[in-house]
Amino acid sequence: MKLSADWLRADHVQRVLALLEAGGHQALLVGGCVRNAALLQPVSDIDIATDARPERVLALAKAASVKAVPTGIDHGTVTLVVDHQPHEVTTFRRDVETFGRRATVAFSTDLAEDAARRDFTMNALYARADGTVLDPLGEGLADLHARHLRFVGAPGARITEDYLRILRFFRFTAWYGDPSLGMDAEGLAACATHSAQIETLSRERIGHEMRKLLAAPDPAPAVAAMAASGVLAQVIPGAEATALAPLVHLEAGLAPEPIRRLACLGGTEVAERLRLSKPETKRLTAIRAALGETMEAAELGYRYGAEGARDALLIRAAMLGAERPSLDLNRVTFGAAQRFPITAADLMPGLEGPALGMRLKELEARWIASGFTLTRDALLRGGA
């Protein structure tokens, strides 16, 4: 197989590859950029594997006047910056000892050894500068074409090397797997066996993986498998996946949005366990609060904003197995655009303190009951 992609032919990529090859070393694109290019999907990060040791990469870069940053030199990674574009160059490695997310590695000159330490077969693909794809394990291309996500070697061994691979298994399946195939049975069983070890991972890393998983076009099958295997309960206690598939169906025309989908899953301590940002936490809280309301859709939009109210109505419909509430969504948009015409200054100095607050609430309730039609003057006069 041979890749054909604009980014592969880009001068900055070819310069880095040529720099290493001119120094007498292998220079191979690896991992996600190869996988995505083969699937004709966008590529964000460009990773390069080489048999050159990191100090040799630094020396070659210096000789070629290329900026080099020793971003992970102890693990063999040097970032080369060409035309303001970063390229991570990592020496072939083999694991000597692993400790969860930490590992003792030895540098290698053997491409097969480097491939054998990677997580999934479709991520153990390499490509030369001309786009020729190399499959050292002899499994990656077949699995990629079949959209079958599998661990490299024994799933249990790969997981104990790095327990984050449990979550990556579900995330990559959601993005690159064929839903009709279901999850790889051996991999899923290994994830279930080691699911309690998720507690040993940092919450930032867990949150990162969950955001990426829930941003997939349709994460519902993968999340359902997470729930069935006990992994979801380890990530978010009390979460349920049953309404996610209906929600994805109802989202037609909307961009995938992780926080909306998190709200659909429910569960406890979500913001803390996933280390959500303040804006993410605010959005999740608004959706959940709107979900608990029984008010008319326009008022829901007024009180919780267009997005929060819309998402709450979609989630409610998903939970009830209902059709998309298009009319209600139009009312949400209408309500969100309304602005209460009375301010505290309009009622002062005649009212102050608690009495002022109560009067404002009374007038706001009348205004909403009127369908947002009563004007400022009508409200102040007490007219209907």
From TrEMBL:
Record GO biological process: tRNA processing
Cofactor: Mg(2+)
Keyword RNA-binding attributed: yes
Domain of life: Bacteria
Annotated CDD domains: NT_ClassII-CCAase
Keyword vocabulary terms for this entry: Magnesium, Metal-binding, Nucleotide-binding, Nucleotidyltransferase, RNA-binding, Transferase, tRNA processing
One of the record's GO molecular function terms: metal ion binding
Poly A polymerase head domain boundaries: 28-150
Domain tRNA nucleotidyltransferase/poly(A) polymerase RNA and SrmB- binding as annotated: residue spans: 184-240
N-terminal signal peptide: none
SUPFAM superfamilies from the UniProt entry: Nucleotidyltransferase, Poly A polymerase C-terminal region-like
Pfam families registered for this protein in UniProt: PolyA_pol, PolyA_pol_RNAbd
Family label: Belongs to the tRNA nucleotidyltransferase/poly(A) polymerase family.
Protein name: Poly(A) polymerase
Source organism: Rhodobacter maris
